[in-house]
Design brief:
alpha+beta; conserved putative lor/sdh protein from methanococcus maripaludis s2 fold; 4 domains; 4-stranded antiparallel sheet; 29% helix; 36% strand; coiled coil; RND_pump_MFP; efflux transmembrane transporter activity; Efflux RND transporter periplasmic adaptor subunit
């Protein structure tokens, strides 16, 4: 019995020693407050898209057989370049006929006007003779009447010239309806049709593939949806950053160029406002394609040199854990915050420069009052074999 009591006492003593022994300090990572840039950012809710400032899906106004196809996909063209032409020999012949009529009318005008000038000189001569009593009034009247008739004939022929030129314009307009020209300089993205095929214009309300899809790739912008709550603080001219899945390691700069004047209300989607960001000059080795997915961050405010902490260190209620005066125990600090984004948060009050704060919040034991040991990540990596 005595031995059992001694054994029990020993077990109790061991358990008490285990329970009452000092707790092992928790290893934590801490970062120091620093001075630097903090920006307030607004990001898109869904992926945006690279778009061209000018893009035209060109189609012909008339139907007809494709006679000439002057471009292919990927070709770069200048403004006014002829891209596609239907069979139009009859219209070209009609245009030549109209031009010939213009030349004929101009010749008739020249003849009539030359005669009118001669008749005016004859009137002047007859008046001089009449004043010298060398010509009769009847002769002067006949000369003046003839001069007036030839003058009107000159005007009539001038009108015929204008009428012939108007007919040429009509024939040129008809011919132009069979020719598809580039309305601006750009690159041919798509060609629908082959020589010999019949091209049919799109009837009203029925979408058909364009004959030529032309894109001006010299001017690109990003259109992205922004939540209606965030869109209210965005203004045209604000700086923005653009990132693309196709260029993961690069960020491009730009400016807000347009904010849609209405909110999109699509079923099963949050209400958003489309915001356009025009890209600044791109590096020579970057070739963006229309249709790339893109994300934007609009910089609504920025403080270039301010006290900041990593945003991941923030606790609920705008608190952080920092070291107490003993340098071993965690204590909670209430902060007054300024600008913030996913990476950095501005601290207006509550911390001082170079003050350490807890960033390893994944340890549930790291609470206020816990004893800690700060891990030096640089030293630990150096000690590893």
């Amino acid at each position: 019995m005595k031995k059992l009591l001694i054994s029990a006492a020993v077990v109790v003593a061991v358990v008490a020693a285990f329970i009452l022994r000092p707790a092992k300090p928790i290893e934590v990572r801490m970062a120091k407050t620093s001075q630097g840039l903090v920006e307030a950012l607004v990001s898109n809710t869904r992926s945006g898209t690279i778009k061209a400032c000018q893009r035209s899906r060109l189609s012909l106004a008339l139907g007809g057989q494709v006679n000439h196809l002057y471009v292919d996909q990927g070709d770069k063209v200048e403004s006014g370049t002829l891209l596609l032409e239907l069979w139009n020999d009859d219209l070209k012949a009609a245009l030549e006929q109209s031009n010939a009529q213009v030349r004929m009318a101009e010749l008739n005008k020249a003849s009539a006007c030359r005669q009118a000038q001669a008749d005016q000189r004859e009137v002047k001569r007859q008046r001089e003779l009449f004043n010298k009593n060398l010509s009769s009034p009847e002769q002067l009247d006949r000369t003046e009447t003839s001069a007036e008739i030839t003058r009107l004939s000159c005007q009539q022929n001038e009108a015929q010239v204008q009428n012939a030129k108007a007919n040429v314009a009509v024939q040129q307009a008809r011919l132009a309806q069979t020719q598809l020209r580039a309305p601006f300089a750009g690159i041919v993205a798509e060609v629908n049709g082959e020589v010999g095929e019949y091209a049919t214009p799109s009837p009203p309300g029925v979408a058909t593939p364009p004959a030529i899809d032309l894109i001006d790739d010299r001017c690109l912008y990003v259109r992205a949806p922004i939540d209606e709550v965030d869109a209210s603080i965005i203004r045209v001219g604000m700086a923005a950053r653009v990132t693309l899945d196709a260029f993961r390691d690069q960020a491009f700069t730009g400016k807000v160029s347009r904010i849609a004047p209405y909110v999109e209300d699509k079923e099963k989607q949050a209400r958003t406002v489309n915001v356009d960001v025009t890209l600044d000059a791109l590096p020579d080795d970057v070739q963006l394609l229309v249709g790339y997915s893109a994300d934007i961050e609009v910089i609504t405010a920025a403080n270039p040199q301010t006290l900041r902490i990593p945003s991941e260190a923030l606790l609920e209620g705008n608190h952080v854990l920092t070291l107490a005066d003993d340098g071993k125990t965690l204590q909670k600090k209430a902060l007054t915050l300024g600008l913030s984004n996913w990476t950095w948060t501005e601290v207006s009050a509550g911390l001082t420069a170079e003050q350490p704060i807890l960033v390893s919040l994944d340890n549930p034991a790291a609470v206020e009052g816990a004893e800690v040991t700060v891990i030096d990540d640089d030293k630990r990596q150096a000690d590893q074999p």
